Amino acid sequence: MESTIIKTVNYNSYFGENHVVKNVNMEIPENNVIAVMGPSGCGKTTFLRGINRMHELVTGAHANGNIFLHKEDVMKMHPIVVRLKVGMVFQRPNPFPNLSLYDNVLAGYKLNGIKLAKSERDKIVEESLTKVALWKEVKDSLNKKGTFLSGGQQQRLCIARAVAMQPEVLLFDEPTSALDPISTATVEELFKELKKNYTLIIVTHNMQQAARVSDKTAFFYMGELVEYDDTKQMFTNPKDERTQNYITGRFS
Ligand SMILES: Nc1ncnc2c1ncn2[C@@H]1O[C@H](COP(=O)(O)OP(=O)(O)OP(=O)(O)O)[C@@H](O)[C@H]1O
Q1: Whose alpha carbon is nearest atom 3 of ligand 1?
Q2: ipTM entry
Q3: Fewer C-beta neighbours within 10 Å, C or N terminus of the chain?
Q4: In the chain, what are the domains?
């Protein structure tokens, strides 16, 4: 029996008066890949950014309800602590252009004022880059800037930066939408490896990607979690008519 790592209870989020995520109740099992899909503007990104308390960084944005990480309520934790446990990778690879590859991997420690011995830094850099299958490619170029890498490599570097903080959960907001098909395939392959150690929640517009990489899929529509099920079940036998219409391409 898989254990639940994240559980949202009546979770709502707002931009001012605009109620964009509505009463979401969802249980996410550990070491699973969860795809979050739905039409544009339905609240996928807002929901994702709520899980590590990034939503509230927007002026006027607020949220209520509960998000349990194991037994602890994220809504009551210090946001910095939450973000160390729940990392985030964005749509466009965003390595720090002025930092070396080595320092990019360690950027989270620097930003949080965490000091490490050189041997520890070396270990984290090697382990993190190994976990994203980038170590062999870059081990002789660690002092070069992160921007010399290809788009796909840059995205893997950003994943290494998140992994370096030893999170339990990784959030991905359309992580391959800015990548070519070959880089996309490499990152998708990586998800299968990463889920051995982490729980992955991925917002994607790409239904084939959701079908290829995820164990469970959540379908959002107008801020509501309409359907949440095993991915196979969702794509072969959706229960809600709105899900059915979406996956058969009747709206996008
Ligand atoms: N920074 C913001 N300030 C105010 N409203 C916002 C902001 N970001 C998003 N919204 C609004 O919140 C709603 C949900 O947006 P969100 O980006 O979460 O949807 P989405 O499903 O991720 O869309 P997409 O697939 O287009 O990225 C939309 O009505 C959007 O206009």
Answers
A1: 15
A2: 0.97
A3: N
A4: 4-96+169-248 (3.40.50.300)
